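Hey, can you fold this one?
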Amino acid sequence: MNIHRKIELHGLVLAGGRSSRMGTDKAALVHPDGRTLARRCYDLLEDAGCETVVLSLRHDQELPPGFSDLEDVVVARDPEGANQGPLAGMISSMKLHPDADWLVLACDLPRLDPATLNHLIFSKRSNEAFLSYRSEFDGLPEPLCALYAAGALLILEQARLDGIRCPRKVLINHECRLLDPLTPRALDNANTPADWETAKTP
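Sure. Predicted structure:
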């Protein structure tokens, strides 16, 4: 744990999507380093100093491959029938430690590197509910590689009550401070087979 932090930091890997555009479970895709994408993100969060790392899954989803060597993976499941995208998984997970900061990652970030996460952690200001990177593609917040402070949970819950399903919209509405990308293409995601091939290209 970073000794300069007074608030606990927990990590969240969002792996409960249905991967309809990919045609296969993105969490189970094998990275060139031999780990599944979900396990690689899990390890990155552990290495970044998170107290615990939570894996967010659908209510009926099996644990993705790549975790058989771990005895106590913490899993947070979406409520049965939930159809609220990543917001549901974020809220369910963050309720496990409501007074902590959360480093939230989508599982489909094959180019994510430790420096990007460390820069995010060390750039956080005490009065911020959110901190995110600026997308290299459209300049908007990247909500699924972002820091959500303890007070963010109440904001996310209210957004869900207001019918908002997109965490990016929440960050925009609350004027989230944006960091310029540290490593080019580190936040390239893999939503389709073509994305996956491009993401693996140096």
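The chain has one domain: 9-199. Let me know if you want another pass with a different chain boundary.
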